[in-house]
Amino acid sequence: MFCCFTGMSEPPDASLVSLFSVLAPWDILRGRDVFLESSELSLEISIALLTHFAPNCATFSRAREIPIRNVANPPKPLRSEVHPEGIPEELQKLSKKALKRLNDDTSMANLSADYCCDIHLQGRKFTLEHPGRSIALNLSKWKKLQNLPGVRTIFYNTCMFNGSRRKKFQVLITNEPIFEKFIGKLCSGNHICDRTGLKHLKWRPTVSAGKVVQFQTGDEREYPLGFCQEYAKAARQCMRHSGAFLEVFSGPNAPLSYSVGESLGVQVPGRRLETKGIGVKNEVQHLAQLLESGPSAPIHPPEKRRAESTTNRITSVQAGRQPGYGKRTRLIPDGLKDPKLHLEEAVKLEHPFSQEWALKRDHVDAISATSLIPDEDTKKRLKELSIWTNLARSQDVVDKQLQHEMVASGAAVRLGRSPRTALMEKLGEKFGIEDKSVPRLCLTGVPIVGEALRSPFFEEHLIPAQITVEELLSTSQRRRPGTLYRIKKMAESSSAEMNKAIWEKAIKEVRQGSMDGPFNEEQIIAKHGRFFNLVPSFGLAQGTNEKGEPKFRRIDDHSASHNNLAATRTQKIPMAMVDYLLVMITSMANHVSTDLMVGTEDMQGAYRQVPLPDSQLSISITGVYNPDTKEVSLFEMFGQPFGAGHAVPNFYRVAEWLSRVIARGFNIVIDHFFDDFFMVLRRTESHEGSFFVREAFSLLGFKLDPDKTQVPANVAMVLGVAVNTAALSTERLLLVEPKPTRIKNLCEMIDAVLRQGTLTPNMAASLSGKFGFLCSTMFGKVGRCCSAALRARQYGPSEDTSLTPQLITSLNLMRKFAIASPTRKLMLGDSKPPIILYTDASDVPERVSDRWVVGAVMLDVSKDFDMHHTFWSVPQEIIDKWIPKQSYMGQLETLACPLALYTWSSQVHRRRVLLFVDNDSAASCLVRGFSPKQDTCSLVGQFWLAASESEVEVYIDRVESKSNIADGPSRLAFELLHSLSSKFTPPCTSPFFTSDISWFVEPP
Predict the structure, then answer these.
(1) Other Cβ atoms within 10 Å of 296 Cβ, number
(2) What pairing do the DSSP bridges indicate for beta strands 567-572 and 459-463?
(3) Which distant-in-sequence residues (6+ apart) come within 8 Å of 769 by Cβ?
(4) 797 and 165 in contact (C-beta within 8 Å)?
(5) Does the N-terminal peptide bond of residue 875 adopt cis geometry, omega within 30 degrees of 0?
(6) Alpha carbon 240 to its chain's center
(7) DSSP 8-state assignment for residue 562
């Protein structure tokens, strides 16, 4: 991965750098054409003032030279000081894959050394990091680099930096002396660390059955937080007020680049890429698509496309959510460099939340077909249902069904061959359902390993398997004892209540026919042979249900069984979640003037209604702990297993087929999230509409769960939230509220943590996720500001589980927000143009009495272009509340935004607002709803509290500094505003004196 900071020569109060995260290094060596060409990388390196290299060190490690007890044939060294590129006799023994890995590491190491030499000779700065005893130091190119005049070698131990307790010996080669001061820290203690006073953690490889399974060097391959912070300090001094920073081979999380960016007061742009496995990967994208201006100008112009082009992003915008700040397309591109011109463009804009472009074609057609008289729609649907019923009974369909069932897999037979596939084929042809394979697959089965089957419903997205199916099967027997041990060990660490519930769930499936068992290992071998693959099953506590009873889910771990490793993903699924339901409701409300209601249906044992192919029954043998015998029993699985990666698209295409055929057949606005189907209906036809949905499922042979049916109502619980349509007709408001049981479960978890006085990173992650979901039901981004301490614990060292004052405060605030925060509201039918706000700030030391000034401009186009401005000379009393630093531009730019909302609270009440900010760091924090800086986080929290008090729907966007009309009042210059007849409004500053950031850092 490459991370590039680009800094321009600007005034000291301007942002020094902007960050771009790009690409993965190893793929350069594989020649994939989506990655940087060497010429492009050379160009970026030639621009950078400071470049950091960290080539892969795995095969250069001396870990293989260390004797390992209880291992007869330990792994042998692959390199030596004499043969740093590989010991010839050992290379001959390597597989093609292992040899390629070794050669790739050599190529990366030599590439780094060559670039470092060039950088040094050109008078710029570099750092090159590796293990302190790395065999790479013996490469001829590394020796050449170290012998250059002015190049120094700095050794350090990672335990001397916060976030590490292992005494890892490292080296930093550089031509910048300042790094000696910040990085050159060695620990003199063998067992006890100089920094912590605690014992060093040991490096111990995992040994199983006399073999080394894994070296533990991967545990701390990522830079400790303290190292990143110290490096960032040195980088800041090295770069001064200009230049560019480039990180090459940064690893999956790029913590060093993030720390440098944080030190310089900038955000990390770029998108996140969904990842399977540990860590977060930055999205792979071409450099030319990222860079927009400055010294690092792109070689090719950036591709012009809407950032909201993906289905979910378009949906979230129409549902009143702003996409991530780095993911949006600017409403007005940079380049105008004139406040009046920018204002002229701003008044032409439509608020993004008011645009209707996310509704699917099936739902557009269904709404368009809605007649003015509800009874007419019911008559049409009754007629269509009669056609379906007669078709199902026709001799042609009955005969064809018999033919279909002759080729049904054994698994489908065990599941009851329920789907009426012949009828499905007929209706699929009638309504033009795009995926014609679904009916047959419901009888023959869908695979969960190998290459996933493709569907025209989904988008192309290839993720290759990590192992072959042959490797999966050939290693199954060797892995089985470990899997059995894992199942038993996990059960023994769980409650008796959970173990009983999980066992009863398995037995219930046996009675229903979706599983068979229990068996012992000998019985399974007799049935499937020695090479069956065992899948561990475990329980997951999910709080309590509406009756207050504990909820448990049984999960089949197909990652631990390696099934998911042997699965090639071919597509990604555009899923319809809560946001899309809101789009369905608002779109229908804008076209139908009557009350709307929402109803839901759930499929019963949904995944189990879609069979496995017989050829893959043996790879899904499921192990469940029997609490009575205290042993693991084995079961055959006939339906799609919950936990297999391929089972997701396998089932989703069936559910999508059902959703489309019902929507087209009955003109019902219906969609689904996996097995949860939700529909929007007029009050006068709501019960009839849900009747047609149930009848359609019955005719097609798919089972619904009557216990989970929600008859159409004004308030419906959908995907964990309560959707309330009661105020649609009276106030034109759609409300989204948290589900009461979610609030209850979160509060119980928080109370338990506070009682126990400990919080592990895993529990912090769970709490953060649950609270984040609840935040999705709150107004705007209210509440997000109080969970920063939890995120720090989530990604911090696992050894520390104590509750700090910050964590106690954060937990208590989360509890209060969950209980008392305002409901999320979507405004419908707001025909007024959006209010336009501009904000800015300045920090000018020469203005002794007015050094810190924030300003804002408000324009209400609906009131004959009524323009107002305000400014506030921020007193020392406010500044003293913030973290001491040389410049407070980030905090000031953020402060200006809640100031604007407080000042014009009556004007923006229940209005849509476009807020233009020229500071990317401040804007990004506002969009996310939090900041890693405590003082900024407090200001962000105030902004969203102000927004919720005024019930304002705000969209935050960038304005270039030279086009920001608020630049004038922030610098006490008002000529332009006076020429535009702007009126001064005294600033509302009282909320900033009555609030205090101590509630973020001290116990309440």
Answers:
(1) 22
(2) antiparallel
(3) none
(4) yes
(5) no
(6) 34
(7) T
pLDDT, mean of residues 326-338: 86
- The string of pLDDT tens digits covering residues 580-626 is 999 999 999 888 877 899 999 999 999 999 999 999 999 999 999 99
Q: Where are the domains of the chain?
A: 339-346+833-1001, 735-824
**Closest to 195 (Cα-Cα) out of 812, 797, 634:** 797
Whose CA is closest to 827, among 595, 581, 590, 669? 590
**Does the predicted TM-score (pTM) go above 0.70?**
no
b/e map 781-815, b = 16+ CB within 10 Å? bbbbbbbbbbbbbbbeeeeebebeebbbbbbbbbb
How does pLDDT run across 809-862, given as a tens digit for each residue?
889 888 888 887 788 888 886 678 999 999 999 999 888 889 999 999 999 998
- Let me know how long the chain is: 1004
Q: Other C-beta atoms within 10 Å of 638: how many? A: 26
Residues 6+ apart with CB under 8 A from 610: 441, 442, 445, 446, 639, 640, 650, 651, 654
* Residue tagged 């050894």 (tokens): 799
Side chain identity at residue 263, one-letter code: S
Spell out the SS3 assignment of 748-785: HHHHHHHHHCECCHHHHHHHHHHHHHHHCCECCCCCHH
d(CA 299, CA 406): 60
User: Quick check: 635 and 518 in contact, CB under 8 A?
Assistant: yes
**What does the alpha-carbon distance between residue 977 and residue 260 come to, in Å, rounded to a whole number?**
38
Is 878:892 a contact under the CB 8 Å cutoff? Answer: no
Instruction: Give the Cα separation of 223 and 164 in Å (integer).
Output: 9
Burial tier of 853 (Cβ tally within 10 Å: 0-12, 13-18, 19+): buried
- 71: confidence class by pLDDT, cuts 50, 70, 90: low
* Helices 395-406 and 421-431, axial angle in degrees (round to 10): 120
**Residue at token pair 């893959």:** 616
Cβ atoms 726, 715 nearer than 8 A: yes
CA-atom Rg of the chain in angstroms: 31
Which pair of structure tokens corresponds to residue 136? 């790479």
CA angle 137, 138, 144 (to 5 degrees): 80
CB 118 within 8 A of CB 128: no
- Please name every residue paired with 2 in a beta bridge, in sequence order, or none if there are none: 22, 248
- Measured CA to CA in angstroms, residue 729 lies from 153, 364, 579, 668, 726 at distances of 72, 21, 20, 21, 7
**Do 411 and 613 form a contact (C-beta atoms < 8 A)?**
yes
CATH of 339-346+833-1001, one of 3.30.565.10, 3.40.710.10, 3.90.460.10, 3.30.420.10: 3.30.420.10
